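pinned: reference chain
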Amino acid sequence: MGGLSIWHWLILAVVVMLLFGKGRLSDIMGDAAKGIKSFKKGLQDDEEEQRSAPRPAQRLQNQPPLEPNPDHKLQPMQDDRPSH
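pinned: its structure tokens
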């Protein structure tokens, strides 16, 4: 049960050519290339939109710092999981 030899690949190529034919196989590869080009163009368009869009203001810098809770009765939550 080793890897595929050159003869296996040749037989596989002949079967694929018989099933799809020369024209159909080239059509499939052309469609795949168009899809890849369209995907890359979409990525470039997204990057250009991100560069041109203004960055939103950071909300954390606009908020005052948190003050500690003045209630002295507060305690950390107790662990209620059963111990093993």
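why pinned: The chain has a mean pLDDT of 81. The helical segments are 6-52, 59-62.
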